[in-house]
Amino acid sequence: MARIWVGADIGKTHHHCVVLNAEGERLLWRRVLNDEPELLALLADILAHYLSRLLPRTCVRLSRKQRVLR
């Protein structure tokens, strides 16, 4: 199974997040505000986009804002 690594630099007003694959290639880098909706959107993007590529058929898209893993 392929792996991804997620790292975060946490700050008071904003955070930086990076996602790497097993080879160390950067798949995603994003700066987000220290705001719950922004952080949830970032997590949803990571799960939806990368887990669906790594684990085909396990990520089912329910709607634009809602996703679930089986």
From TrEMBL:
Instruction: Specify one Pfam family.
Output: DEDD_Tnp_IS110
Q: Which InterPro entries would you find in this protein's record?
A: Transp_IS110-like_N
Where do the Transposase IS110-like N-terminal domain residues begin and end?
6-48
What name does UniProt use for this protein?
Transposase IS110-like N-terminal domain-containing protein
